[in-house]
Design a protein that fits this description.
This protein folds into 2 domains: 52 residues, Orthogonal Bundle (Arc Repressor Mutant, subunit A), CATH 1.10.10.60; 120 residues, Tetracycline Repressor, domain 2 (Orthogonal Bundle), CATH 1.10.357. It is 70% helix and 0% strand. By secondary structure, the protein is mainly alpha-helical. α1 crosses α4 and α8 crosses α9.
Length: 202
């Protein structure tokens, strides 16, 4: 991670630096989940993390800078993609992971807070876009592998298949308030796989 002169989260620190980063990001995530981004204060995050206020201001600078690093850390630590050998079960694993994240008592409110902040803060929006770009890059190869096996048409847009799976889950999470449950996740995965097989994303 760069210091004040660069974007947070651009390298992975070690030793005490890593412990400080972990403590600060954990405190920031808790504050986001509890209060939303408007309730996050750098001095309070420093107090909760047990580190000096100067350290937090010097290394992260602003709340959006802290949120950007939090998203970078979440992308770094998220589970790797499934390798089941079949598109349907790979996509079902992704849908299950999204469901688990969005319904988690801490992660769900945290994502809502970040997504809400991204609507009005360009730095938070850019960090959120990077987070999802990392996750799409992680999971898109399962579609490319399905194309190589002949399970979906050649030239299928793998990124679009991943987006198509994710979209109905996020719609329920953010817009409709309809239940998010394993059946919903399974349907989203099956629908994305069926559409990919039919050539909808070719």
């Amino acid at each position: 991670m760069n210091q004040a002169t660069g974007a947070p989260g651009t390298s992975r620190p070690g030793g005490r630096t890593a412990r400080v980063r972990e403590a600060v990001l954990r405190a920031a995530g808790d504050a986001l989940a509890d209060k939303g981004i408007g309730g996050v204060d750098l001095a309070e995050v420093a107090r909760l993390a047990g580190v000096g206020k100067t350290t937090v201001y010097r290394r992260w600078g602003t709340v959006p800078g802290l949120v950007a690093d939090l998203l970078a850390e979440m992308a770094e630590s998220s589970l790797p993609r499934a390798r089941t050998g079949a598109l349907e079960t790979d996509l079902a694993a992704l849908a299950g992971l999204i469901l688990k994240t969005l319904t988690d008592e801490r992660q769900g409110p945290l994502f809502k807070a970040v997504i809400a902040a991204a609507a009005s803060d360009p730095q938070t929006a850019a960090a959120l876009h990077r987070f999802y770009r990392v996750r799409i890059d992680e999971w898109a190869p399962c579609v490319a592998e399905a194309a190589a096996r002949g399970d979906v048409p050649a030239g299928t847009d793998a990124d679009e298949v991943v987006r198509a799976l994710s979209a109905p889950l996020y719609y329920r999470f953010l817009v409709s308030g309809d239940p998010l449950d394993p059946d919903t996740a399974a349907r989203a995965a099956a629908a994305a796989a069926a559409a990919a097989r039919a050539g909808a994303y070719a």
